[in-house]
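Sequence only, no structure available. Ideas?
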Amino acid sequence: MKRAVCAACLRPSTTCICGCVMPVQSAADVLILQHPMEVANAKNSGRLLHMCLKGSTLMVGEQFDVLPMPRRAVLLYPETPGDRSLGLAPPPPFDPAWRAEELTLVVLDATWRKSRKMLYLNPQLQAMPRLPLRDTPPSHYLIRKAHKPDQLSTLEATAYALAQLEGDEHKYDSLIAAFDQFVAQQQALAARGTISSGA
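Reply:
I predicted one. Tokens follow.
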């Protein structure tokens, strides 16, 4: 028999994350591009981010023909000097004078390796100015292994990016609180053997 699935979070009812959702409205539009391999990953934070951020859009795929962005698009992505070795042109500069209300923040929900492939496969992403994060706190992502101390979950990175764009350090504290609750739930499920405890 198939397990019952929650219609909202699309997870099995036994691992439903709807109780972690804390809604918040961002000034910028947010477009989440989720790699297909993340959809069924119990530790993935992209779906929770989408459920918390009112008006956000989530699209699943690796390559996209046209992305829906009525506002100026900005890619949440670090500066990567190795782009030239991939044949990619440098992205246009990000203008700090841009207001959050004028922007669509584009977020890649994928592993680092998969996000690089998504960037390579999508010229529309390559043409976007990039927003690198500044002075972020350590990650709360205790359920996944990170290769570097400053590697954040998709939800954390987006929360800090929106706070940075809006100049409001604490507006998205509820997003981080939702993530902490999600992490605690996943740890409890792993302890009970409901989900895998591996990275």
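The chain is about 25% helix and 15% strand.
Hope that gets you unstuck.
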